[in-house]
Structure to design on (179 residues):
């Protein structure tokens, strides 16, 4: 009879221990589940922040490239305007080209700062999280010439070709060494 009570007491004690262990494990699982959720949230926030920074950086690169290109273009347009203005004294058709160049210069002068300002505003909005960091993908294929074009694209006749430039340099250097 005493053996049965000992067995029941041992089983009761083992059952109580198993229940305490189960409750402890359940508490640990709940704690770990909360920690996992917190880590997932932090990871998502950090990924979002990095994506926004990357997109803002790309926008700033586009802005920088536009600024640099505009700065490089301005002297070219000014030189063309000056040259066509001088040519207009000899060739009346040059006045029309000069007018077109002046209009383009005005459009660039007005448009570039506007676009740069908008790019800056957009980069700041992306960094702050007010705008989704979505950028257009660069085109994968090379642009095709216009369909109404009847042959290969050619440079205007007055622009020097690479071969011509190299030949004239070679001829000049030969003349320089012969003298």
């Amino acid at each position: 009879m005493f053996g049965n009570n000992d067995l029941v007491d041992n089983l009761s004690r083992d059952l109580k221990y198993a229940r305490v262990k189960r409750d402890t494990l359940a508490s640990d699982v709940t704690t770990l589940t909360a920690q996992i959720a917190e880590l997932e949230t932090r990871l998502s926030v950090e990924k979002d922040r990095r994506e926004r920074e990357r997109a803002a950086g790309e926008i700033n690169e586009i802005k920088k490239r536009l600024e640099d290109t505009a700065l490089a273009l301005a002297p070219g347009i000014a030189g063309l305007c000056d040259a066509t203005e001088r040519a207009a004294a000899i060739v009346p058709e040059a006045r029309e080209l000069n007018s077109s160049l002046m209009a383009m210069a005005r459009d660039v002068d007005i448009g570039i700062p506007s676009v740069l300002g908008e790019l800056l505003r957009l980069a700041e909005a992306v960094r702050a999280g007010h705008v989704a960091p979505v950028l257009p993908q660069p085109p994968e294929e090379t642009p095709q010439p216009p369909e109404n074009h009847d042959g290969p694209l050619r440079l205007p006749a007055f622009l020097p070709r690479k071969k011509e430039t190299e030949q004239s340099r070679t001829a000049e250097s030969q003349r320089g060494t012969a003298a």
